[in-house]
Structures are given as C-alpha cells and as structure tokens.
C-alpha cells in the first residue's frame, strides 16, 4: 500500500536563539567563536563525477526539510559540501565539527586535513598552516549505514520503530582562534563539598577564579573546598561558574556539586534515595530529523517534561550536541544516557521472543571489528560527557542489540568513570555484573520481582494517540495501545502509574522510563506530537500523578 506522508514544521524556526548564537561547547568556552553554519554548496559525487545540487543549510542533514534539500543519499553516492571563508589572524586556528554522519574527509584549500569516522561525536583539526586570506573548506561525506559502526535508530527502509536515515553535517561547524599554548580540555570531578579541576594542556601556571576568589596553582589540577555547598538536583539545579587563565589563554566553565551512588538497593542522589521519574527521549524532530530548528527545541522538550512532573530523560541510542546536556544541567533534568548500538539487529531474537519471556540462548557472536568500534565510541562518549552533572547513568546495551562481553565491558567502563551508574543490559539477557536490574514491560501487567539491586523499569507504556493533522504518516500508526482522544490517553496513563507503577515501589522500584517523549514518524506514542505543537497529556493530571508517585516513594523510604 502506498503510504501518505505530510510535511510538519516545528515552532522553533522563529526562535531568537539560533545554532549560531549558542556557543557549542559550554563546558570549555572562549570569547573566540566563528560559526560556519548557514549556506553551503552541496554536490553529489558518484563514479568520480561531481554534480552540483543546490545550496544547503548547515547544520541540518540533507534528508531534512530545514536543509532545503529534503533528499536521501542514494547507493554509491557521496555528498560534497563546500563553502568559502576569510580569516586574517596571527593565532592558531582550530576547525571544529559537532558531528558528521558518517565518514568525513575534510580539505582546506584542496589539502586533506583529517578523515573522521563516526556520526555522533565531535572532532577537530588545527588548520593554521593551511590558511590563506581567502579559504575554501570542502567536506566529502560517505554514509552507507555500515552496521559495524554506530547507527542508532536509522534504517534505509524506515517504518515502525525505525526512522529516516540522515547523512552529512548535522551539528555546528565553527572556528576558534587560540594562542600557541592553550588549555585543550578539562576533567571536573565534584563531591558534595569540593571539586577537583584537572586541565589538559596549557602552561604550568594557572589562575582559577570562582565566586570572586582567585586560586593560583602550578601543574595540571587543583582541588577546592566549597563553603556552604549547594547541591545540584532537578529541584535545585545550581551551577557554579568559574574561569581559568593560563598565559594568553582564558576559558570559562561550570560545575555542580552532585553525587550519584548506590546504597542498599537504591540509587541515591547526593546521598539520599531518589525516585527517577523518566521518559524515553530519542531526539527526533519533524523538520530537522536529528537537528531541531534551533536549540529552543531542546529547551522545549526538557521544560515540557519537567512541567509534566518528570525529572529524568533516557537519551535513547543517540548522542546529542553538548548544548542539550548543558540545558539539562542548567534546567535540572537528569540524563540516563544510552551507549550507541553497533552490529546487526533481529526482530524475532532481539525483541519479539524476549518480550513474551523467551530469552535463553538468543544472543549471537559479535565480530571483533564491531566490538572494537563499540568500545571506542562508548569511551569517547564518556569523555565528552564527563563534566555534565545531569548525566548520572549509562545504559551499555539495549534489548540485546549487539550485546557482547557484557560483564567485561561493565568493569572497563566502571573503572574509567566510577562516578556514574551502569545499566549493563536494559530489558533482558541479564549479565552477572550490573549496578541495577533493568526491565522492559510491554503488553502485560507490570508486576516486578524484588531485587537486591536497584530495580529499574527502563521501558514501559508506548500508548498511542494519533492526531492526524500533526502526524507524519497518515497511512500507518505504530504503538502498543491505542486511544482516539487525548482525554482517554491521559486517563489511561494516569491509571497505569497509579495501579501498576506505584504498587511496585514497595518492591524496590526506584526508576521508571515511559515510552516516550514525542511521536516519531509512524510512532504516535509520544506525550507531544512530532511537530511539538500539541501536548497530548493533561498537565494537571500528570502533575498530580507525579506527586502521588513521589509521595509513595518517600513513604516507603521513611518507613525503612
């Protein structure tokens, strides 16, 4: 059957906040920032012949409406981006890419600078020696959706829980002017009353300014005790701003005093048991696909979920720009971050049979190439997100997708960053080593078994309410339970929490993740529509339900 689709635009196109106006790396900020977003030339390269298409708007992927292209990359094609820029400076110049999907070959004035493989993480190159007064930047992109690399929820034959694939530049491109010696990175490790700040690069002597006080130090790190500490939480997302001067270099950053630990069988925020009331967030937008029309899209999602009573987002099989995590830090939204899936997927073995309870003997061998790629992108992601206090929890594998060496990877990741919680296998195929017991429950009543570890319901719900005028696919609908109107949709969600979630708190349940934040293409199981124009869940009902949830959790913990 031929399906009928419609173009949907979000309201964020008119925002005064743009991808140019927001500094793309808030944890290491300088005055020097030259964005290279906007109009680029886009060509297709096939059989060594390059054919110009038209202008493209960066940082929106070519498959999106906002790019001005709305075109899928075809087999054996490559995209070629090109733009000119002028820059006269006697400083070092670093070229930054937020993310390019999937292989990017970068040229300055016809000289190859760097090749980067991986569609979800930032990369950079020092281009100082290649610059002229007027310059040509050229990026050749290859993206064949190689399953040996991370690919998220993209599939060439989209449909159901798989979505339109993207390619090319989908995050900010920018230049930074630097002195010869500069700070290349920070590692910020807080406790509840102190913070350790480590610097990478820069000269020996440094000056850190915090709250009007100046701390001078030699070497690579300093530990500072905080008087009258204010702890970060969703209820009070307090951030401490600071700066570091090192020779001619000056950077600004921030930290929060926050700990996340396990005590007995609870996840504790700042030393106290906490209920993580979460929603699944896949980070897709109707007009920009991977990239919202402006950073305002991230703010809308975060603040709307907070308005409904949620305090946690599970960022599902996607790594966002650092701005997203900064907004979570700033506005008080905890992030449960998924690691990126590599390798094959089998609906029968990875989803269907485990969902009905058949889980033994279904995992398959994973090639060494895929294992190495998974380790690399996971470690790189943890380095990227280390300084963000909102990131409290990592999911290593989801529903057995590419699952391998689970216990070994748990130990490796935990050793690298012991300050976070690790969910080794979300859903099923439980390993021996994991900080939590993590369950997915669809299609049946939620009745969990008590556990010696924190009990996390990491996916449930998936209730669908389709609003045709705000739906991408007018022919097909995907969800796990269907409702014709928003009133019944809200009542059913309220009933689900009150009759099934809240009773399980007495069994040790301390975190839940409802599927999901927004509709996505065929899926209409979001709390908001794909175009972010309709909030389907009633705010008052959801707030009252959330209060009942927290009250029950506090009652159970007070009794203990």
Brief summary:
This protein is an alpha/beta fold and 560 residues long. It contains 7 helices and 32 strands.
Question: What would you note in describing this structure?
Answer:
The chain is of the alpha/beta class. It has three domains: 11-178, Galactose-binding domain-like (Jelly Rolls, Sandwich), CATH 2.60.120; 183-255, Immunoglobulins (Immunoglobulin-like, Sandwich), CATH 2.60.40.10; 272-559, Glycosidases (TIM Barrel). It is 18% helix and 33% strand. The protein has helices at residues 296-307, 322-331, 347-355, 368-385, 406-416, 486-504, 539-559; strands at residues 34-35, 38-46, 49-58, 78-86, 92-97, 100-101, 103-108, 111-117, 123-126, 134-142, 168-169, 173-178, 183-190, 194-201, 205-210, 213-218, 221-225, 240-246, 249-255, 260-263, 266-269, 272-273, 276-281, 312-315, 334-338, 391-398, 421-426, 437-441, 455-461, 463-465, 481-483, 509-515. Strands 27-26-25-24-23-32-29-28 form an eight-stranded parallel beta sheet, covered by helices on one side. It has a six-stranded antiparallel beta sheet with strand order 3-2-4-10-7-8, with no helix packed on it. Helix 1 runs parallel beside helix 2 and helix 6 (486-504) packs parallel to helix 7 (539-559). It is globular. The mean pLDDT is 95.
């Amino acid at each position: 059957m031929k399906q009928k689709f419609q173009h949907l635009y979000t309201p964020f196109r008119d925002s005064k906040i743009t991808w140019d106006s927001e500094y793309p790396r808030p944890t290491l900020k300088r005055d020097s920032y030259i964005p290279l977003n906007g109009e680029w030339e886009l060509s297709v390269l096939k059989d060594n012949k390059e054919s110009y298409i038209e202008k493209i708007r960066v940082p929106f992927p070519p498959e999106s409406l906002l790019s001005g292209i709305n075109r899928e990359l075809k087999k054996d094609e490559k995209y070629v981006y090109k733009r000119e820029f002028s820059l006269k400076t006697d400083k070092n110049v670093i070229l930054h890419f937020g993310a390019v999907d999937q292989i990017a070959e970068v040229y300055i004035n016809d000289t190859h600078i760097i090749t980067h493989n991986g569609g979800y993480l930032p990369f950079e190159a020092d281009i100082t020696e290649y610059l002229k007064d007027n310059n040509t930047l050229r990026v050749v992109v290859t993206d064949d959706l190689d399953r040996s690399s991370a690919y998220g929820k993209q599939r060439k034959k989209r449909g159901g829980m798989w979505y339109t694939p993207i390619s090319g530049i989908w995050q900010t491109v920018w230049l930074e002017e630097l002195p010869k010696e500069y700070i290349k990175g920070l590692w910020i490790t807080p406790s509840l009353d102190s913070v350790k700040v480590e610097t990478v690069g820069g000269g020996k002597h440094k000056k850190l300014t915090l709250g009007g006080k100046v701390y001078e130090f030699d070497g690579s790190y300093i530990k500072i005790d905080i008087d009258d500490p204010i702890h970060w939480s969703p209820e009070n997302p307090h951030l401490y701003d600071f700066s570091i001067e090192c020779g001619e270099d000056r950077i600004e950053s921030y930290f929060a005093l926050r700990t996340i630990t396990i005590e007995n069988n609870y996840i504790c925020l700042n030393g106290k048991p906490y209920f993580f009331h979460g929603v699944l967030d896949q980070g897709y937008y109707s007009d920009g696909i991977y990239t919202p029309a402006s950073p305002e899209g991230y703010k809308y999602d975060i603040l709307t979920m907070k308005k409904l009573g949620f305090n946690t987002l599970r960022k599902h099989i996607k790594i966002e720009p650092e701005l997203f995590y900064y907004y979570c830090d700033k506005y008080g939204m905890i992030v449960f971050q998924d690691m990126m899936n590599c390798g094959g997927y089998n609906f029968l073995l990875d989803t269907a049979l485990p969902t009905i309870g058949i889980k033994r003997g279904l995992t398959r061998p994973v090639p060494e190439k895929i294992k190495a790629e998974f380790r690399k992108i996971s470690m790189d992601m943890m380095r990227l997100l280390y300084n963000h206090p909102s990131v409290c929890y990592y999911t290593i594998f989801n529903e057995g997708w590419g699952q391998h060496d689970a216990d070994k990877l748990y130990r490796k990741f935990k050793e690298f960053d012991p300050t976070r919680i690790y969910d080794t296998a979300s859903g099923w195929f439980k390993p021996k080593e994991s900080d939590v017991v993590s369950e997915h429950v669809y299609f049946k009543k939620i009745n969990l078994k008590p556990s010696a570890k924190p009990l996390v319901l990491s996916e449930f719900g998936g209730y669908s309410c389709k609003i045709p005028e705000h739906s991408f696919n007018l022919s097909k609908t995907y969800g796990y339970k269907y409702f014709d109107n928003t009133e019944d949709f809200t009542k059913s969600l309220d009933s689900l929490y009150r009759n099934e979630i809240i009773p399980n708190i007495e069994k040790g349940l301390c975190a839940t993740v409802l599927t999901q934040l927004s509709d996505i293409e065929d899926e209409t199981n979001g709390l908001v529509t794909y175009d972010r124009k309709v909030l389907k869940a009633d705010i008052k009902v959801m707030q009252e339900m959330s209060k009942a949830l927290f009250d029950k959790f506090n009652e159970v913990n007070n009794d203990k």
